[in-house]
Every structure is written in structure tokens, then in C-alpha cells.
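U., I forgot to send this yesterday:
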Amino acid sequence: MRYRIVFGLVLVITVVIYGGIRVSHRYMRSHLIPAISRGQEAPNSALSTFDGKIVHLSDYRGKAVLLNFFGDTTCAPCLQESPWLVEIQKRDRAKGLEIIGIEMYGASNDAIKSYAKEFGTNYVLVHGNEAVGDEYGVGNFPTSYFLNARGTIVAATVGLHSENEIEEKVEAALRGQ
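Result:
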């Protein structure tokens, strides 16, 4: 009887330790945490557009970048934010801003084309994946990172923020702060 209790206890402890290692490994892959990412260099990622072009974040060095992780047509806050991003890109492209929208729900190329047409999207849209989501610590949508021209994160947001808040963070990225 005592042997069964000891064996059971050892088994439970082993399972708990194994589970803890697996969970911590998942979170260790997340290189960035939006709330404390300021001052860190943004990871360089290679993602594809809906027409098959490969986009590297490093292609945008020398420009301020707004990386916007979003969920296609089922994310209400993302849909609310989309027209704001179009206006910000229109206004600030000449100042050196580029917006990259990273769709994280696995939408088809046709769905992304439809999304772009519906909102008059004037910025790059790419397919995201689990690896880039983990790399940027994305857990909720929308999640945005604001990068200066050197690729350093100057701000990050999670969830829907006002258009004015987004504009302030874009201005900070353009100033290089």
C-alpha cells in the first residue's frame, strides 16, 4: 500500500514538472512582451503578402514602422481600427511611416484582398503565423508595435486604443524616440 502511494506521488510530481517545463518553454519562445518592449530591437521577420511577395522587416530600415497584428473580419476592434490606419498611412507616409498589417487568423488570399478593398487599405498586408506571433508576444488583437527608423521599439499597444493614442505613438516613432 505504501509503495502505491509513493509511486502515485512520484508520478504526480513528474507530470506537474513536465507540464511546467512545457508551459514555460512556450512562453520563453515569446521574445517580446508588449508592455515592456520599449527600447528593444524588433525581430526581423519574413512574411508573405496575399500576392506571394516576401516582406522582410529589415527592408523597412530607415523608416518608422507600425506593425499591426490583427484578426481579419471577426475581430471587431481590428475592424474599428482599420480606417484609422488607412488615414494615418495616408497622412504620414511622406514623413517616412510604413504600416505593415499582419493578419493572424489564417485568412485566405481572397479574404485579405476583400478586406483591403473594403477598407481601401493603402499599406502592406501580410500573412502572420504562430512563430511571428510568439516572437512578438501577441496574445490579443489588435496588437501594435511602433518602431523608429533604426528598428527599435518605441511603443506597443494591446487592444483597441483611440486614434489619437495611435497617432501619438506614430509621432514618437517618426521622431525616433
